[in-house]
C-alpha cells in the first residue's frame, strides 16, 4: 500500500548542499538520529516482548493490573515495529517522505492512535488503582477478566475516535519535515483544527494525575494518627451498651454471672454462616497494591515528562503565529516521545518486586531464598 509517489517529497531544500560543512553536519545528524532511533526501537521490542511473554506465561500474573500492562506492551510493540521504520526511511531519504500520501496518513493515524491509547488507558488504570486502595472489596469482586476486556475495548474505541477524523482531513495528517514523521499539521489557531485533539490529550493526562493525588491523600489520611475519642456507655439496667461499651457486661452474662434480660449487645447477633465469603486483606497484599499503584504512577509521570516538550512545541505553533521552534529542541522533543515506547518495561521491572521475582523464576540459576509471608493486618 505504501508506494513510491511521483512527487511527494518536500522541495524546500534549495541550496542545502551548497556548503560542504552543512552537508557534513546533516550527514552526522542523520547518523545520530538513525542510531538513536534504532537503539530505542531495539530496547522497545526486546523489553515489551519479554514482558508480554512473562505476563502471558505466568498464571499468577493473570490479574487486572497486569492485563492492562500487557495491553500497553503490545501497543508499544506494534508502534515500534510499524511506525519507527518509516521514520528511519524518511531520515535515510534526506528528511523527505519516500512513500505515497495515503501511506503517510495511515502511519500518522497509527502514531496518534497509540499516543491517545496510552493516555486513555493510563487514566482508566489510575481509577482502578484508586478503587483497589480505597474500595478493596468492591474492586476484588468486580475487576475480573471480562471487566478488564471491556475497559481495554473502550480505550481502543475512544482512541480510534480521536485518531480517525484527520484521515478525512479534519486536522490534516501530513509529513512534517522538521519532525521527520507523518503527524498532525499544527497551524495557527485561527486556521487550526487540531487544537481540540491537543486539549483532549492535556485534559486526560492532567485528570490522571488528579486521581493519583486523590489516592495519595486517601493513603495519607488513613495512616495519620488520630486521638482516641472516648464515648461513654449508657445503661438502664447495668448492662452498659452503646457506642462506648466494652462488652464486659455481655461477657459476664454469657459466663453465667448476669441477671435480668439479655444484654442489648447480644440481641440479634448470630454467627456468620459462610465465613469464607468474607475476604481479609493481608498486609503483603495491601503493600503489593500500593507497589503496583506506584509503578503505574511512575509510568504516567514518565509519559508526561517524555511527551511534554513535544506537546509544548505544538501549543507554541498553535497560539503563536510563525513561532520559530529551534530545530535542535524539536528533534530532541520528537525523539523523547519515541523513547516512551521503550520506557514501560524498564519502569515495570524496576518498581515492581513481583515482576522481578517472576522473571528470576524463569532462570533457575537466579533462584534464591523465598521471601517469608508478612503478617495479617486489619484494614
TrEMBL record:
UniProt xrefs under Gene3D superfamilies: Rhodopsin 7-helix transmembrane proteins
Keyword match Cytoplasm: no
Pfam families: 7tm_1
Domain of life: Eukaryota
Membrane disposition: Multi-pass membrane protein
Principal location listed in the UniProt entry: membrane
Keyword field: Cell membrane, Disulfide bond, G-protein coupled receptor, Glycoprotein, Membrane, Receptor, Transducer, Transmembrane, Transmembrane helix
Entry keyword annotation includes Membrane: yes
Subcellular location: Cell membrane
Limits of the G-protein coupled receptors family 1 profile domain: 47-348
Gene Ontology MF terms in the entry: G protein-coupled receptor activity
GO CC list: plasma membrane
TM helices/strands, residue ranges: 34-56, 68-88, 108-132, 144-164, 197-220, 296-320, 332-351
Protein name: G-protein coupled receptors family 1 profile domain-containing protein
Native species: Eleginops maclovinus (Patagonian blennie)
